[in-house]
Amino acid sequence: MKQNFLLQLHPLTKFYFSLFILVAVLIVPGYIFSFAVFPILVLIAILAGVTKEFLSIVLKALLSVLVIVFIMQMFFYPGDEVLWKAGIFSITQEGLDYGLLLTSRILAIGAVFILFFRMTEVRDFVKSLEDKGLPPMGAYVVLSTLQIIPEMRRQANTIMEAQKTRGVETEGSLFVRAKAFIPTLTPLILSSIASTEERAITLESRAFSAPVKKTSLHQLTKNSADRILPIVYVVILVGLLVWRFFL
Amino acid sequence: MKRNFKDDFNMMAMLLIPIAVAVNLVGFQLANVLRLPIFLDTIGTILVGVIAGPWVALLAGLITNLINAIFNPVYLPYALTSMAIGVGAGLLSKYGFFKKIPKTIVSGIIITFIAVIVSAPITVLVFGGATGNTSSLITATFLASGQQLWSAVFSSTFITEIADKVVSVLIVYFIVQKMSDRYLSKMNYGYLYMKRNNKK
């Protein structure tokens, strides 16, 4: 099966793209550019074949934040040019502009990072950082964290069921529910830290902390696009900076 | 006892980080399931600070927020808050603040101040004052009653954080009390909480 070109890019190329958008959005004044970034990101998501997950996470994560940020600025940002007034609430032109600016930036920056993680396996990203000089221990910590989280969620549910069987109440008044928290969390933490010793022994038995160069089964390749694109980003950013501050 | 910066990052401490991050996330999820009005999403970070020191906790806080940011980028700027909480908890532990309940509560209040001082400017500068959680409603109420933006955000953050952090440090205190000497002896700051030979 032929892999998608965009998905095949080196993780760092995609990461630099996110940073590029972040800086570009902060350089260019006004909200029109930042709002224009979003359709471009959607287009990239369609080309990469991740549209559905991308849009659903944008909706879930960003929509409520954007609405609330916008409403807050519209009503409470100080300004003189009043557009609409009812009682203590008033909408000013300045508030409207600032609300649009802020929401456009949050949308563009938030969406580009969501897109990055939909297009990149965390494993590949961490490997690329390791190639750049992240210590192998750091890479191991990040990856094993991702593995441990679902495992501990399951374990937390098991412990809670077990405690319910013993008679710990999880329904009722606030105080009763709060009391169920500690009997669930304590066994979870104590059993998890007991397992770190086994992990340490396993890692050490493979000479993990030996001061030698590590070999990896997982390799990343760079193609010509991965060499050209970062240069393109830098050129565009320098162009934007010159345009913003010197013209 | 003089301690080298690098000594903090031994293997047992590093292996504690994934656990801490998972405890942060699971704590938050449990608080949701039990419909508690507080987040309890920094228990892991504080725990690492207490037994493994400030720098390991800084890393745990950072990784927690990076992993949360994979699904919700709003968490990304607040990585600074998590890191500051971790460092704060670690330093407090170094000076023996987690040995007895009264001092633990004091350290909870100190950590609240750290959290507020770091997170309120992020809320104002990055999100203009509200991010859509419970404290946004309080902020809006303060603003509508005529307060300035900065003081409104500071006070609403303080109100939502104080209960959360004090309960979190108490939970950490009880969990550390239950840890075995055998495990604590392997952690950098564990000797402070061992039940035997508590002299060093």
TrEMBL record, chain A:
Task: Tell me how this protein sits in the membrane.
Answer: Multi-pass membrane protein
Task: Using the UniProt record, give the first listed, main subcellular location.
Answer: membrane
The record's GO CC annotations read: plasma membrane
Query: Does Lyase show up as a keyword for this record?
Result: no
The superkingdom listed in its UniProt entry is: Bacteria
What is its subcellular localisation? Membrane
Q: Which residues form the signal peptide?
A: none
The UniProt record lists the keyword Transmembrane: yes
CDD domains this protein is in? Answer: EcfT (cd16914)
Q: Which UniProt keywords apply?
A: Cell membrane, Membrane, Transmembrane, Transmembrane helix
Q: Where does the sequence pass through the membrane? A: 20-50, 57-78, 98-117, 228-246
Q: Please state what the protein is called.
A: Energy-coupling factor transporter transmembrane protein EcfT
UniProtKB/TrEMBL annotation, chain B:
Tell me which Pfam families the record gives.
ECF_trnsprt
Q: Which residues form a coiled coil?
A: none
Mind telling me which residue stretches traverse the membrane in this protein? 12-31, 38-63, 75-93, 105-129, 149-176
Does the keyword Ubl conjugation feature in the UniProt annotation?
no
One MF annotation (Gene Ontology) recorded for this entry: transmembrane transporter activity
- Keywords attached to this entry: Membrane, Transmembrane, Transmembrane helix
Q: Does the keyword Transmembrane apply?
A: yes
Spell out the protein name for this chain.
Answer: ECF transporter S component
Provenance organism: Psychrobacillus vulpis
